[in-house]
Amino acid sequence: MDTKNKGFNSKLIHAGAYEDAKGSAVNPIYQTSTFKFRNADHGARCFSGEEKGFIYTRLGNPTIEELENAVAELENGVGALAVASGMAAVNTVYLTVLSQGDHMISHSSVYGPSRGIMEKLYPKYGVESTYVDCTDLSNIEKAIKPNTKLIYLETPANPTMGITDIAAASELAHKHNILVCVDNTFCSPYLQKPLDLGADIVLHSMTKFINGHADIVGGIVIAKTAEMFSELKYVMTNMGFNMDPHQAWLTRRGLKTLAIRIDRAQQNAIEVANYLEKHPKVDWILFPGLKSHPQHELAKKQMKGPGAMISFGVKGGLEAGKIVMDNVHLAMLAVSLGGIETLIQHPASMTHSKLSKEARETAGISDGLVRLSIGIEDVEDIIADLDHALSLV
Ligand SMILES: *Cc1c(COP(=O)(O)O)cnc(C)c1O
């Protein structure tokens, strides 16, 4: 069915649907590494691209393709490439856009490993980077050099919840012939559509909201133009970053409930944020839905809703934060985010521990910062859980 003119929820259910020869209602898992050709000419036509046919799963597979077509449509891109993890998506973009001698600008508190590999691995290949607070565009402008090829944004950023104006950053980048990639993991296409705002590439860790059930690891890269899509595809297929069909099938299933999951998690997050903001033992809180968030107005303009991620500090710093993390029972002490269950974690000792203390401090990741990913449980239970833990501080 053509879902191009249908609403977002209809797309979530039907976009990319694959017509299975046996008529199954749900696309089967094509758990196969390779595909039979009818004869030698057919094989040759598939390889030359004269005829569209599946050849080998690293290059394409019906189960994976259904997921790719669905996410490409949801993000308003021309095509998408599903990969083994969010980090495979990040590397697909870095390897496609950046060559020896090139420079990249990114936000100081992006996802830890996205910055970690850029600073540890990529200098080996002659790629340099500058990390600045991208929530202030003048910092990006000052960091632009003649060899800058990529502005890599993550908004809201992890875990400081800093928000970058995607439209304004894209306009600035394009004036200098620089491409813009947005890591849209925290929002999903339900809350934010970076390509519509001017970005050239979007990526996700599908491990998070897109799959939403904490049972797979996966990533995806979405391109705005056919030319960019084929460059990304060359890197993805030849680096062997592809997703597995079974993982793709689970992710396509999880995707169907994206909007109703986010609606509920977000409503819970709004209530939890209001509760935390008033709590006497909470020092500060960052949630795009609160008026106190420094980019609250920009969040309202650029995002359909504030999402389900909250960062906060407990009075008494790290020691007090530890008491909270050790005494919650419903919230699970675990990294990752965007699932149906509430998770709590401590970036300074967990997700961002590989950054130096100095890099963390300039990025705004204080030792006392606690990050919550709010799930879809009953909000009264989430608040009671936090209330009990905070009472012990
Ligand atoms: C988790 C995450 C990634 C990396 O994804 P993996 O699936 O763990 O490889 C990248 N960006 C953001 C914002 C993330 O939260």
The percent range for helix content is 40-55%
Say how many strands there are: 12
Report, as a whole number of angstroms, the end-to-end distance: 56 Å
Strand arrangement, major sheet: 1-7-6-5-4-2-3
Main sheet characteristics: 7 strands, mixed
Number of helices: 16
Shape: globular
Overall structural class, as computed from helix and strand content, comes to alpha/beta
CATH superfamily of the largest domain: Type I PLP-dependent aspartate aminotransferase-like (Major domain)
| Rg over C-alpha atoms, rounded to the nearest angstrom | 21 Å
Please report which band the strand proportion falls in: under 5%, 5-15%, 15-25%, 25-35%, 35-45% or over 45%: 5-15%
On the 0 to 100 scale, the average pLDDT is 95
CATH architect. name of the largest domain: 3-Layer(aba) Sandwich
Architecture overview:
The chain has helices at residues 8-14, 40-48, 62-74, 86-97, 112-120, 137-143, 166-175, 188-191, 194-197, 226-239, 245-255, 258-278, 296-302, 317-327, 357-362, 379-391, and strands at residues 79-83, 103-107, 128-132, 148-154, 179-183, 201-205, 219-223, 282-286, 309-314, 332-333, 343-345, 369-373. It is α/β, with parallel strands linked by helices. The strands form two sheets. A seven-stranded mixed sheet has the order 1-7-6-5-4-2-3, sandwiched between helices. A five-stranded mixed sheet has the order 8-9-12-11-10. Strand 4 (148-154), helix 7 and strand 5 (179-183) form a beta-alpha-beta unit. It starts with 7 loop residues before the first helix and ends with a helix. The mean pLDDT is 95. Pyridoxal-5'-phosphate is lined by residues 85-87, 111, 114, 154, 158, 183, 185-186, 205, 207-208, 217, 219, 337. Pyridoxal-5'-phosphate binds next to helix 4.
